[in-house]
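Running low. Any example?
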Amino acid sequence: MQHVKIPQDRIGVLIGEGGETMREIEAEAEVRLDIDSENGSVAVETVGDPVLGLKGPDIVRAIGRGFAPEDALRLLEDDMMLFDVVDIDAAARNKNDMKRKKGRLIGEGGRTRELMEELTGADVVIYGSTLGIIGAPQEVDAVRSAAEMLLDGAPHGAVYSFLEEKHNEMKHQGLEYHRFPGGQS
């Protein structure tokens, strides 16, 4: 059994209307959730497939970090799906710096965050003092690198170019990997 702590304001999202979301997570991930709404503590106990059960705490953590339940459940789509968190607070010197860095990650009208999602295929959420990422290993890696570049003060244009490059690399690897079946005729 693992214990995960999530923010108070995310408990309602985790439980869902009439407990619907909680039941869906329990069924899909083959876990049992024991939610303490007083302190935000969630006990995650595996009741079925142990490999699926390992994803249970990450699903709860992802919802706690601002992801919608359906996005968090993407972690079950594939064994390779990862959930990662970039701590914005650790890169900030003070509250104002934190706000500024968070703003850089979000971008004007949310454009930077959207571009991270579009060009990598990962889901990206900025909530509180963290940036959460759900995706395949190379998608998560690309978003983490882009976020770190922005937090280190890199110009947005340079980060967008980096993301375009990563996007083309991933697209190229996809083409290489999914060669048409059968031989030439």
Summary: Residues 156-177 form the longest helix (22 residues). Strands lie at 2-5, 31-36, 41-46, 82-87, 123-127, 130-135. The radius of gyration is 18 Å. The domain at 2-76 is CATH 3.30.1370.10 (Ribosomal Protein S8; Chain: A, domain 1).
